[in-house]
């Protein structure tokens, strides 16, 4: 039905517009993707959550971000690296992809039972087993890629990949399912409102990270504005808000071309480059009505000519999405050629005589204004746009920004506006400050990755180690700050282990902070303790691991769980405390060898006996227990065998370097009966060994730190006499 | 976003979190010591699990013993005595969920205890005690498993020169802060300042243990010549996660000074010092200061009823980052 109109137009205007004969179908037009009415309920959204961070107020981190497949947190330390050449797993693309999520890990965290950590983390492997070479220990050696040997191209590509990953993580606009018959009067689609965070991220990407976009920056800005102009509506008037208003009225208007706002809306949409909307609105023009065609042929021809011109606007960009209007040109010469031709066509149309024949005043004025905008008439453009950001996007040149701002000064500043100001001013510090103020530590920590690649000045500024910051770079500082935010929450600290990954990517100070954090973990609950030790093992933090085991050991020992206490102290190789424990046990065993309560201690010594081989002290206690048992048997009358065993035990004990010196005399004193026995139980060499030990002991007694055992004063002389007599008898025997 | 973690009674006078912030010890005006615990580590609601009157007078300071030595706190009492209490459950005791017992009681002798802090050294646990007569005593734990046996290791006064002090010195308060770094290569050190009537006692000095001669030496003085006599209310040594210098906060009547302390001694064995900021904001006395675990944020509480958070910006300029005001007077 409209074909007639078009054909008509073409017969008259074909010399002006050599556009292909587009088979125009009324319902065929898609609108800028995210240009949308606010609908907070449409689909999953990115939620911003405030965490109880100890360090900085306003800690915003993106949460509840669905990542395909596995729960991201779980994947983090073990996920294969993303970076080209398989760099460390701490490369930005692999790690930053996992902003803390809530659901899956939250569940496992809350319901986790004690064995959970060891079974899921390292199958069949003790959590305190000797460390295997792990990905994460590699991560420490290559903290966060500094791109040492990377070709610049690869680096750009990698950063862009990283940026795209983050961008998609921040949420893609969800479109409402397209109905088969679209309402022609709906120019703006109901889609989910994008977030400022994503808008800010993409803005930084456009200016710093996307090398390709430098050539077609204006087009990138047009795209950006199409996506995010709605966000600016909160603080100032925008084309978007105007169109929203217009759409509301479209439903009720009968002769829309008589209506001033209709033409203003089209002008505005054209000024910011939303070609679809322009064309769609133009084709709502009354002259397309079947019953009108006869009377308004010329008028309709003009409307359609402008619509065709708009839809054929040359655009310099690598590609155009399907259904996007305009003609795409990849190189500047091609674009310039097409641009000149297109402008020529506009100029021709502008001067054509058909305007005189157009009787409808509003249409004539409206269309001519559109032509002026397309020709770049500044006044028309200023009229059509609402704020300087829109105007700037249009002009698309850095040094025009100031002018644009003067032309459309803002009363209130939107967070995105402030960010844009920093970017335009090429002031990295302002950009960072705005990121930090408006979007929180997550944004700063990650945006730095884009800022550094986009500008040498920024790279120097952000990577330079500064005395004022404690010898670290701004980049590391912001990453540390974000890591602390992550560390302050159980989900991102332990359950998903993201915080350690971030910390270890801070080359200078991250490890110390991780150590402090690990040291401050509670040890009372086994499950948390094992998890903490597992993190120590992953990052080869042996010393802190030993401290934690020490704390656990002392806690258990002092809270009546002696066996567990000794177990952890042995793991910690804490000789000092183990020796103290064996002394306590020795005293006790010595006093109560025949008592009933010995049974209780015997069990403990038995337990220690198997584990204690490597660590001194308790090994001795085990032998001492055997020795005491033999002595007991002698008392009970089972003489000869038991006596020989007792002598063997005694010699073993005295030879063993792990036997504390302070026990030598008590041991010998206990053995007086053996030493005095006739015929002698000890041969010459055995007796000499004991005499030597006694001599050593006499020397040691003169030292100030010697601790006198609790024995009768004549003990030493009694032992010496018994040994001398035994030596004599042994000589005679041999 | 504020959430109440714990509700203390009116007579609570001082409090201290343990190393992992899972337990809170609170000292009261009437000499009662209370311990608050959370039911499980993920919960952040704390309820009292043990309470007992441990002194006859007000407890004005509680300090946790480092966790390697058990769950124990020292209480400093207004009558000048102090005591160490420990949670122990032995095999011979009846199963009791939280059995806190007295390990050690230090009676009042010549002077009252003003402050007491435990410092972790590699070989042993050291305890620094500052007295009202200006004495500083360093005690050492003899048995790592028993908090009963303490031995006096050193005794000195908070002065750089060794000139004899004539007349009686009277100190109202003292503040000790250990260097929190646990590095094997480093000797134990701490900073100490007094609030006394003798100017040369007051200024904060950094003391370091000289292993070779088994003695403590003053290695730095944190005060400008014109401020030397200023009474010190509180000192706090910041954790260092990799800075090429240490950071120490010193609160006097003039404000909170932030000091940088060099890491390498000069030929005299002294460390270089630089005052980088003087922070004003508190009206009246600063009672207590604490650093966060990265040493980037300082929290201070004062008689004006406010807690203030201080940070340095990218240019190294210190400023007040936030203020937490008490809601009721």
Structural description of this entry:
The complex is a heterodimer of chains A (734) and B (329). By secondary structure, chain A is mostly helical. Chain A is 60% helix and 2% strand. A two-stranded antiparallel sheet of chain A has the order 1-2. The termini of chain A are far apart. Chain B has one helix at residues 199-202; strands at residues 12-17, 23-28, 32-38, 46-53, 59-64, 72-77, 82-87, 100-106, 113-120, 125-131, 135-143, 146-157, 171-178, 189-196, 204-210, 215-222, 232-237, 245-252, 255-262, 273-279, 286-291, 297-302, 306-312, 318-325. In chain B, a hairpin with a 4-residue loop joins strand 6 and strand 7 (82-87). Residues 91-95 of chain B have low confidence and may be disordered.
Question: How is the topology of this model organized?
Answer:
The complex is a heterodimer of chains A (734) and B (329).
Chain A (H helix, E strand, L loop, with lengths): L2 H11 L33 E4 L9 E4 L8 H4 L16 H4 L7 H9 L4 H6 L13 H7 L10 H18 L26 H14 L7 H16 L6 H12 L9 H12 L3 H8 L7 H4 L3 H15 L2 E3 L10 E3 L2 H20 L2 H4 L3 H15 L2 H7 L3 H8 L5 H7 L7 H10 L3 H27 L1 H8 L10 H14 L2 H6 L2 H7 L5 H10 L6 H13 L3 H17 L3 H10 L3 H18 L5 H14 L6 H18 L3 H17 L8 H7 L1 H4 L8 H18 L13 H19 L1
Chain B lengths: L11 E6 L5 E6 L3 E7 L7 E8 L5 E6 L7 E6 L4 E6 L12 E7 L6 E8 L4 E7 L3 E9 L2 E12 L13 E8 L10 E8 L2 H4 L1 E7 L4 E8 L9 E6 L7 E8 L2 E8 L10 E7 L6 E6 L5 E6 L3 E7 L5 E8 L4
Antiparallel strand pairs in B: 1-2, 2-3, 3-4, 5-6, 6-7, 7-8, 9-10, 10-11, 11-12, 13-14, 14-15, 15-16, 17-18, 18-19, 19-20, 21-22, 22-23, 23-24
Protein name (chain B): Protein SEH1
Main location (chain B): nucleus
Pfam family, one (chain B): WD40
